[in-house]
Design the sequence.
């Protein structure tokens, strides 16, 4: 084996080792420049956000997974106050178009009087949220917020318009649903009338 060949075999592994060390150093620097923990995503697909100005000049971003909102349509609400939710407690009172201050019905949530205590969203624990709820009435709703934090309690109001429910009108839906039962109802009514006539005839004959 010639001396030149031996030098090539010694230099090759060293070169590869130096390249590996350089690559590892570059990867370490890149990792140092990247945040250690990325913010978790918000639940569902946020399609619209409204900003509520609070009495202390802070704000709450209210986001929706459906927009525009239709009555009886299920969606997620997400509530993000300025500065995050840590060390804060939030409430929302949902006032229906007819004035019912406990407008969201059938939801198992902690309440304080008429207000719902805002929970962490089950799929995004860094924000408050209501998971798969609906506004049962068409019209303009009022979401009345109160947030208590180290600096005191602030309040704000967001009007939300719920348009007509998805699908055909409710009356038409009931008509379509009950149409197959119409012949049955007619047969029952006819049988009931025949039974009354027979009962009347028997009473007359026996008298």
Sequence:
């Amino acid at each position: 084996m010639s001396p030149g060949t031996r030098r090539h075999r010694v230099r090759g592994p060293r070169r590869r080792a130096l390249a590996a060390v350089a690559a590892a150093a570059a990867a370490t620097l890149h990792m140092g420049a990247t945040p250690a923990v990325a913010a978790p995503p918000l639940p569902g697909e946020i399609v619209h956000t409204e900003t509520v100005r609070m009495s202390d000049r802070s704000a709450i971003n209210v986001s929706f997974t459906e927009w525009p909102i239709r009555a009886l349509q299920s969606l997620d609400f997400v509530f993000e106050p300025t500065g995050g939710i840590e060390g804060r407690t939030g409430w929302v009172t949902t006032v229906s178009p007819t004035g019912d201050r406990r407008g969201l019905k059938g939801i198992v949530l902690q309440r304080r009087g008429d207000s719902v205590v805002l929970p962490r969203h089950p799929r995004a624990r860094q924000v408050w949220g209501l998971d798969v709820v609906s506004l049962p009435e068409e019209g303009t709703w009022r979401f009345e917020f109160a947030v208590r934090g180290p600096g005191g309690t602030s309040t704000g109001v967001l009007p939300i318009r719920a348009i007509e429910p998805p699908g055909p009108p409710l009356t038409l839906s009931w008509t379509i649903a009950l149409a197959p039962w119409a012949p049955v109802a007619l047969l029952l009514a006819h049988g009931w009338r025949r039974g009354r006539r027979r009962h009347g005839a028997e009473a007359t004959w026996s008298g």
Remarks:
- The domain at 48-163 is CATH 2.60.40.10 (Immunoglobulin-like).
- Residues 2-10, 27-39 have pLDDT under 50 and may be disordered.
- The helical segments are 3-33, 170-178, 182-206.
- Residues 146 and 155 are 4 Å apart (CA to CA).
